[in-house]
Amino acid sequence: MSHRERRRILICPASGHAVNDPVGPFCGDHGARMFSDCPACGSEWSRTRDPRGEKGTDFCAQCGNPAPWLSRTELIQWLKACVQATDLEPAKRRELQEALDRIAELAPDDTKTAAGWDRLRAVAPRVWELAKPVINVLIGEGVRKMLRL
């Protein structure tokens, strides 16, 4: 019998805390349906410990998919790290990171962000593809319409 079969652990998508042997599929503290596997790749979501106890890691260890509890600011920092990891020339990486810094300072629905998102999509399409699962957190409805998303 594997460790996973002996002890059922689910992760709350609202905050990332782990629930050992839950009574049902929903978190008793947040009312959210809990999960154990990455929705992108199906791998078991890894866990770590912090001062409050066991919790899900902020990213899937197998595919890098971000956790649902990450804030917009944390997701933009993740995109900046993804840009840094590309093989783009240094000047283009800097340009995109600066655009993401400007985007982070503005509201998701601020139309001034559209040019930065459009530039990211054009210059770093792989990073843009990574952002698609969390695009609703990053970009407001008005900007999505401008970008034809």
Q: What would you say this structure looks like, in words?
A:
With about 150 residues, this protein is mainly alpha-helical. It is built from seven helices and four strands. The protein has a two-stranded antiparallel sheet with strand order 1-2. A two-stranded antiparallel ribbon has the order 3-4. It starts with a helix and ends with a helix. The model is unreliable at about 1-5 (pLDDT under 50).
- Strand residue content: 5-15%
Subunit organisation of the chains: single chain
Tally of discrete structural domains: 2
Taking strands numbered 1, 2, ... along the chain, how are they ordered across the largest sheet?
1-2
Short description:
The protein has helices spanning 3-6, 72-84, 90-105, 114-123, 125-131, 135-138, 141-146, and strands at 9-11, 18-20, 47-50, 53-56. With 149 residues, the chain is mainly α.
Mind sketching the topology for me?
Elements: H1 3-6, E1 9-11, E2 18-20, E3 47-50, E4 53-56, H2 72-84, H3 90-105, H4 114-123, H5 125-131, H6 135-138, H7 141-146
Antiparallel strand pairs: 1-2, 3-4
Helix pairs in contact: 2-3, 3-4, 4-5
